[in-house]
Amino acid sequence: MKSLDEARALDAADPLRTYRDAFDLPAGEIYLDGNSLGALPRATVARLAGTVRGEWGRDLIRSWNKAGWIDAPARVGGKIAQLIGAQAHEVLVADSTSVNLFKLLAAAVKAQPGRRVILSEPGNFPTDLYVAQGVAETLGAELRLAPREAIVEALDEDVAVLLLTHVHYQSAAMFDMAAITRAAQAKGALVLWDLSHSAGAVAVDLNAANADLAVGCGYKYLNGGPGAPAFLFVAERHQAALRSPLSGWMGHAAPFDFGDDYAPGEGISRFLCGTPPILGLAALEEGVDLLLGADLPALYAKGQALCSAFIDVVEDRCAGLGLTLATPREGATRGSHVSFRHEQGWPIMQALIARGVIGDFRAPDILRFGFTPLYVGFEDVWNAAEILRDILTTGAWDDPAFHARAAVT
């Protein structure tokens, strides 16, 4: 992409261009942070108003049956299943990504007698490593780390479960899910994939990869809103054997019999725990429905085209200005975000945000830009790169106001 005119021509030919109007985006901003928080679908506002005023306000407790609140975790999970190559009864919406990681890691370790190692990579998303540390301490297991290029060699008869993020949160580097899964299973280990930067952004086919377990969040590319509930996947073949360590009443075989003793529910339902967050589920369902209405192959192809265009334009227009690409060039090995390193990454990102280009910063030096194909276009790519160039060439980032650190980066 060599010019603004070329960018506009690509947008004019884009079959997904009308989806931008489905989102309530502020005028004059280029929103490249869908990999941290997806934009607000317009339909979500009306859905939440109806859920609050009608289902909660008017129908009150009756809505657990009348409005299907009690079935929402399985219903929305079944929809997400269509985005990740799973069967409807293999996916459930519940809790947060961190809680779901704890549930599935603990279940996997306990189901592998004699195997006490959780294997992961250094630099994995921190919550994955923190939760794995907690599970290891709770169960008397061990968390072992190996570089991603040595993951397969690190698999041995002590590994109970391999925990990996499909698309890396910083670099966007993507594992070959099928190949890694085969290698782990050949050594007798289960594999738990974190799909937080994958679901709704890149093609995922869990069943084709013979995946065992997976988790993912709802607030990024699924556009479920801040704090949206997460999802978990348990392959059908494992559902009877695995048991959640959080034996809450919603995971009981007969929760409304109110018995004193716990009996796990059938299938995926045993991985429920507490009362479902109905407002969060309603918002998430709207975001998922919007994605399911799109041409998914076209969506994934556009995401990669946007990333490639941004890399090309930035490297051309910002050459010699201190940026280093931290993301794979090859689309087949990359998610739907692009990261550049710069020693002044934090103030540069603050300067970008002040100019209406909303990305984020990841320590120690990463400028990260997420490309959500439903509402980001090629003109956005060009303009964002031009603003970045202006900030770097003028030194506008070196304003004291841009150096002050905020709680959230």
Please give a quick description of this structure.
This protein has helices at 4-12, 42-58, 63-66, 72-84, 97-110, 126-139, 151-154, 177-186, 278-292, 296-317, 345-354, 378-394, 400-403; strands at residues 30-31, 91-93, 117-120, 142-145, 159-165, 190-194, 213-216, 231-234, 324-325, 337-341, 357-358, 360-362, 366-370. By secondary structure, it is an alpha/beta fold.
SSE topology:
Elements: H1 4-12, E1 30-31, H2 42-58, H3 63-66, H4 72-84, E2 91-93, H5 97-110, E3 117-120, H6 126-139, E4 142-145, H7 151-154, E5 159-165, H8 177-186, E6 190-194, E7 213-216, E8 231-234, H9 278-292, H10 296-317, E9 324-325, E10 337-341, H11 345-354, E11 357-358, E12 360-362, E13 366-370, H12 378-394, H13 400-403
Parallel strand pairs: 1-11, 3-4, 3-5, 5-6, 6-7
Antiparallel strand pairs: 2-8, 7-8, 9-10, 10-13, 12-13
What does this structure look like?
Its cofactor is pyridoxal 5'-phosphate. Belongs to the kynureninase family. Pathway: Amino-acid degradation; L-kynurenine degradation; L-alanine and anthranilate from L-kynurenine: step 1/1; Cofactor biosynthesis; NAD(+) biosynthesis; quinolinate from L-kynurenine: step 2/3. The two termini are 30 Å apart. The protein has 409 residues and is an alpha/beta fold. 37% of the residues lie in helices and 12% in strands. The strands form three sheets. The protein has a seven-stranded mixed beta sheet with strand order 2-8-7-6-5-3-4, with helices on both faces. It has a four-stranded antiparallel beta sheet with strand order 9-10-13-12. The chain is built from 13 helices and 13 strands.
